[in-house]
Design a protein that fits this description.
By secondary structure, the chain is an alpha+beta fold. 47% of the residues lie in helices and 13% in strands. Strands 8, 9, 10, 11 and 12 form a five-stranded antiparallel β-sheet that branches. Strand 9 and strand 10 form a beta hairpin. It is extended, with a radius of gyration of 35 Å. The chain starts with a strand and ends with a helix. 13% of the residues are buried.
Amino acid sequence: MIKTRYFNSEFLGKAAAVDIMTNFRKCMSGLEEDKMLDVSMDGPNVNMSFLSNLNAKRSECELNLSQKIDPRLSVKISEYIKDGVSNVREMRRLLNITVNKMFGKKNLPSRTNRRFYPRIDIIRSHMVKECLKQSMVNFCAVFICSNRSNREKGKSFFRLPKVACNQGDDGKILSKERRQKWINAINRVGNYPDILHTRICSDHFITGKPASLFSQNDPDWVPSLNMGHKKFKFEVEKPRERYLRHKNRSLLTSQNDSMSCRNSITNLNPPEDSIVDFQIENFKSSDSIVSESVTIDCKNLVDASVQTDMTVKNINQIETEFIYKNKLNYDLRANLVKLHVGTIEWFDTDSKVTFYTGLPNLKILCCLFNFLKPLITENENSVLSYFEEFSLTLMRLRLNLSIRDLAYRFETSKSTSSKVFLRWIDIMYFRMKHLIKWPARNELIETMPLCFRKYFETKVAVIIDCFEIFINKPSNLCARAATWSQYKHHNTVKFLIGVSPQGVITFVSKAWGGRVSNKYLTEHCSI
């Protein structure tokens, strides 16, 4: 018997607890013929009695989830569960039909390929994972607010802010203060039983989301709308107006400081005894053009004619300088964007595009990106744009740059660079695998280059070569022996690639262990 506290009935209410358990039973029923688990409800607690050994089931489930299946099959499992499919064998039959539709009868993968033909236990584990995912519902913790994530699709739900331990002492103190203010604003009676899973919906923020940690003057630093109690009186408009006035004052102060700095540098007053020569040119009159040099004493000029601190000449000079500084600022911003590796602005020449990506020009690069873009899954936490991720992948394929090098270039971590590369490789394979096509014989003959016709006539169909790629040493001894290459003195996988006389890749074999010979690979690669 394992007793797990998922929620508190005083916090969410009895009706919400019953709703959770109803959805959970509905999702979990029928996954196994012998009932994988029995769920009952006891007040604010959920009791789960596993009929078989819990540790064995948990380790088995984690092991099965670690065995990856094709992402398209994972999506189909989720869709079939939503449609009401709960039997594992029925799910397996539907997945086989899906694979047949994806590849057709001629290009079906091998039945031993567990990526497309997973075992029953693997399918069951993924179904359990999807059922648990679909049964989880977020509730707003604010009193009287009934927003739920499974019903209000357009709402966002936010956790209580954590205590920031990596922002210095000031950040830690500020985050503690903010967290306590959030709890006070919610104003629940008694202690929080499960404060880790507490959520607040976007209806309680003026802008629909909380402000950042150091924006303490922002009214959304603490939730303030429709909090369900009158203990704290929140005036929504006044804090917002006060915050905007504060931002405007800060902006005006910075502008005045920069203006005074420019005036102190440019508007230096000359000494009283200095003499200034003015050249009057191109003064047109009805009779003649007057051009003469006038010498005026600065002291007499100031005493006789200057009535304000700013003359027209000084104003024109400031306006000209402002236009120049504004243009300079724009140019510096544009250059800063160009300095960031992987952006569209960074690929300013065709030679740079060819060197880093292998593509002839920027237009083709953008067309290829737009071709792959529909399959990209949104990731709000990504520090790179989609185009930068695509550039990172092409640069690694073209120049064989290390993950550490790419992390330094794109100012990310090694793990982020590695995940980006692996994700885009899967997308490129799925969208571009049909481009590797074996041409018909008449097409080869009609487009055969003259240099090949001169020496081989029309007898050449393909130019083949075997190449090896280094891999990490496998822990399994049999796999280690099968991948050891005597030629490279390293563990490798070997491929056979075929190129037509026109220079188009027409065949790529499956991966073989580095131990296999080129002759054996050529004879058994189905070319």
